[in-house]
Structures are given as C-alpha cells and as structure tokens.
Amino acid sequence: MRYQISGKQLDVGEALQTHVKSELGETVDKYMQRPTDATVVFSRDAHEYICEATVHLSTGLTASAKGHATEVYAAFESCREKMDKQLRRHKRRLKDHHKERSQPVEFGAAGLYVLAADEEESHEDGGGLAPVIVAEMETKVPTLSVGEAVMQMELSNTSMLVFRNEKHGGVNVVHRRDDGNVGWIDPRNSK
Q1: Are residues 85 and 115 in the same domain?
Q2: CA distances from 98 to 33, 92, 101, 111, 154 (A)
Q3: What does DSSP say about strands 106-115 and 62-69: parallel, antiparallel, or unpaired?
Q4: What is the Cα–Cα distance from 148 to 38, expressed in whole angstroms?
Q5: Sigma 54 modulation/S30EA ribosomal protein C-terminal domain spans which residues (predicted)?
Q6: What span, in angstroms and rounded, lies between the C-alpha atoms of 115 and 45?
Q7: CB under 8 Å to 16, separation ≥6 — which residues?
Q8: Is 137 found in the same domain as 77?
C-alpha cells in the first residue's frame, strides 16, 4: 500500500510516519485484502491536533476518518479507531450480502460546478437566473448498486452521493435525511 503522510504547517517526523504506516497498515489489512493507497494529513487547530485519513480500496470504494486530540499520536489513534470501525462495518455488510464484487467500480466523468450565492443580486434581479460560477472541475461518478452507494456514502462520511445505478445505468442519488435515515432518489421510478 502506498502512503502519503503530510502535515499542514506541521513537521511530520520519521517516527510518526513509521507509526502511522505500521498501525494504519495493520488496521486496513485486518479487514481489506487489497488496499491501494492511503493519505494521512496532520494539522493543528489552536491547541488541538487533527488527523484526517483517507484509504482507497481496490474495489473503488473510499474510507475516510478524522480524529482530534491534544497530542498528535492521540489524534492519529482516534482517527485510526474510527477507520477501524468503518472498515469493520463495511466488511460485515459485505458478508451479509453474500456477494463479493469481482470487478472494480467503474467511474464516469462528470462536470462539477460551484456556484456563488449572492443574495443582494438575486433580490434586485428578481430571481438571479444566471449565478456566477466560482469553480468548474471534473469529478468521477461511480457505477454502483444502491447498497454499495449507501456503504460508500457512509465510509466517506458524506451526506450525499451521486452514482450511476449498475442495474439500469441511470443517475441516482443517496442522501442522509434529517431524521437520520438514508434517502434514495431514482428519477426512473417517478411516473
């Protein structure tokens, strides 16, 4: 597994890098057979250290975790424990479904736009139908089953995931609802 360990305005020494590689490698190997790479970023916010880790799996899924503590090693351990919990749940779900994905997840290209929200202009114009584009970039949309999309959304700690449904090829969305449940939007089911 490839590691990228860095610090934001923080020096990450050899001892910490060795500790991260051994502990995170052990955690990931315990649940996943073929991880591809891991990115670990340490930063500091006032008196707290923050550790953010992202692990890419060979199936195309991504797991991420974040930990906080007053010591840098404790922040990593908090992050590692969260990653351990996520990977354990993911493996349990795979066992429950009795299905292993034999092929890697396919990704299709899609445009991602960030729009500026300017309340003053939209009220003056009577609706603001032409918002200003702040950023335009390319993102990847995975081809997954609905269950795998929910797992990916939970593994990556996001509130929403856009994916291409592997059954019919249409674009679908799963999202975390305010009541804690997961919602699934499939435009093909609306009649």
Answers
A1: no
A2: 17, 10, 10, 35, 20
A3: unpaired
A4: 21
A5: 130-183
A6: 28
A7: 5, 42, 72, 73, 76
A8: no
Which of 97, 124, 140 is at the close of a domain? 97
Residues 34 and 118 in one domain: no
Q: Final residue of a domain: which of 97, 117, 150?
A: 97
- How open is the CA angle 156-158-162, to the nearest 5 degrees? 95
Which residue from 25, 68, 77, 24 is spatially nearest to 50, judged by alpha carbons?
Answer: 68
Question: Do 112 and 92 belong to one domain?
Answer: no
Does residue 90 share a domain with residue 121? no
Angle, helices 14-31 vs 72-97, to 10°: value is: 10
Q: pLDDT truncated to tens, each residue of the chain (191 aa)?
A: 889 999 998 888 899 999 999 998 888 888 776 777 899 999 998 899 999 999 887 777 788 899 999 999 999 999 999 998 888 887 777 665 445 556 666 666 666 566 666 555 444 555 556 667 677 777 788 888 888 888 888 887 788 888 988 888 888 999 888 888 888 888 876 55
On whether the CB atoms of residues 155 and 149 are closer than 8 A, the answer is: no
Residue 159: give the domain boundaries: 106-189
The letter for the amino acid at 9 is Q
